[in-house]
C-alpha cells in the first residue's frame, strides 16, 4: 500500500515538474502550427477580417514563377552547403584529432565563426565580397582572373566561368547564381566549426586499437579511413547530414542582411519568400501556404534520408 502511494506521489511530482515545459510547447509551438495551417486556407492581411478561400492559395503558389525560383534557389543552396560543409568539417576534424602542439588553440580558432552572430559575419563577408575593394577580388586578380560582383551578379556561376574562357552555354545549364554561391560560401564558413566538433567527438570514440591492428595487417592510412573510420563514424555522419539538410532549408539571415533576395530574385530562398509575403506584402495566408509547402519538402527529404541511409548506418 505504501509503495503504491509512493509511486503515485512520484507520478504527480513528475507531472508538475514537466507541466511548465509542455505548456510552453503547447502555447508557442503547437497552437501556432495549427493556426498557421488554418491560415493557409484563408486570406488575411493582419488587419482586416479573414476570408476562407480553400486551396486557392496553394494553387496560386504552384502557378507562381517567383515561388518556384525560391524553391530552386533553396535546393541549389542545399546542394552546395551540405556536401561541401560536411567534407570540410570531416577533414578539419581529422586534422584536429591528431596530437600536435597547441591543438586546443586550433580547435578554438576553427570554432570561433560558430560563436559569431550571423549578422556580424554577414557584414564581414559583405566587405570580403565587395566588387571594388573586396579582398576576394584582389586575391583572384593576383592569378589573372577578372573581378566579380559577388553579391550583385544574377548570372549562373557556370555561365560566368565558361564565358570567361569564351564558351557560351545554355541558360538552364548556368547553375546557381554567383550571388547564391557567395551566400553559400558565407554559410559554410559559419557552420563548419559546429559540425567539425560533432565529427571530432565521433572520431575520439573510435578505439585506437583498431588502427593499431590495421597497421599490423599492413593497411595504410587511406585503407584504414575507408575500412575503419567511415563505417564507425557513420552514425555521426548520418546525424550531421540530416541536420545540415534541415538547417539549409531554413536559411534566412544571410539573405536578409546581404541581398534581400536580389538581384532579380537570384538569391531568393523559401524562408525569405515567406517573410516577404507575410510581413512586407501582408499576405499572411499565402505565406502560411508556402510555409507548409516548405515543411512538406523538409519532411519528405528527411524521410527519404532515413529510408535510404538509415539501413547503412553501423551502430
Binned strand content: under 5%
Q: Which percent bin holds the helix content?
A: over 70%
Q: So how many helices?
A: 14
The biggest sheet, with number of strands, parallel, antiparallel or mixed sense and barrel status, is: 2 strands, antiparallel
CATH C-level: Mainly Alpha
Q: What is the CATH H-level superfamily?
A: MetI-like
Number of strands: 2
CATH topology: MetI-like fold
C-alpha termini separation: 43 Å
Order of helices and strands: HEEHHHHHHHHHHHHH
Widest β-sheet, arrangement of strands: 1-2
Low confidence ranges: none
Structural class: mainly alpha
CATH architecture field: Orthogonal Bundle
Principal-axis shape equals globular
Q: Overall mean pLDDT score?
A: 89
Radius of gyration: 24 Å
Q: How many domains make up the coordinates?
A: 1
Amino acid at each position: 500500500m505504501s509503495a503504491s502511494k509512493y509511486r503515485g506521489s512520484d507520478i504527480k511530482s513528475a507531472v508538475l515538474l514537466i507541466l511548465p515545459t509542455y505548456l510552453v510547447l503547447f502555447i508557442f509551438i503547437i497552437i501556432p502550427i495549427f493556426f498557421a495551417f488554418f491560415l493557409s486556407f484563408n486570406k488575411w492581411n493582419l488587419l482586416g477580417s479573414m476570408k476562407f478561400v480553400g486551396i486557392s492559395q496553394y494553387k496560386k503558389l504552384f502557378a507562381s514563377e517567383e515561388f518556384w525560383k525560391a524553391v530552386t534557389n533553396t535546393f541549389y543552396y542545399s546542394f552546395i552547403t551540405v556536401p561541401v560543409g560536411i567534407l570540410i568539417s570531416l577533414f578539419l576534424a581529422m586534422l584536429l584529432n591528431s596530437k600536435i602542439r597547441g591543438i586546443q588553440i586550433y580547435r578554438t580558432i576553427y570554432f570561433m565563426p560558430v560563436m559569431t552572430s550571423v549578422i556580424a559575419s554577414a557584414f564581414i563577408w559583405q566587405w570580403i565580397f565587395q566588387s571594388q575593394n573586396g579582398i576576394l577580388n584582389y586575391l583572384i586578380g593576383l592569378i589573372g582572373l577578372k573581378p566579380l560582383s559577388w553579391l550583385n551578379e544574377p548570372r549562373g556561376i557556370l555561365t560566368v566561368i565558361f564565358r570567361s574562357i569564351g564558351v557560351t552555354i545554355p541558360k538552364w545549364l548556368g547553375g546557381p547564381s554567383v550571388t547564391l554561391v557567395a551566400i553559400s560560401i558565407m554559410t559554410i564558413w559559419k557552420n563548419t566549426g559546429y559540425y567539425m566538433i560533432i565529427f571530432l567527438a565521433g572520431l575520439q570514440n573510435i578505439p585506437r586499437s583498431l588502427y593499431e591492428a590495421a597497421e599490423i595487417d599492413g593497411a595504410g592510412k587511406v585503407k584504414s579511413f575507408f575500412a575503419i573510420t567511415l563505417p564507425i563514424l557513420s552514425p555521426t555522419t548520418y546525424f550531421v547530414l540530416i541536420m545540415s539538410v534541415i538547417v539549409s532549408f531554413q536559411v534566412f539571415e544571410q539573405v536578409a542582411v546581404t541581398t534581400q533576395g536580389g538581384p532579380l530574385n537570384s538569391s531568393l530562398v523559401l524562408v525569405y519568400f515567406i517573410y516577404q509575403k507575410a510581413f512586407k506584402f501582408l499576405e499572411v495566408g499565402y505565406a502560411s501556404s508556402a510555409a507548409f509547402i516548405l515543411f512538406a519538402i523538409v519532411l519528405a527529404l528527411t524521410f527519404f534520408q532515413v529510408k535510404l541511409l538509415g539501413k547503412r548506418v553501423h551502430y
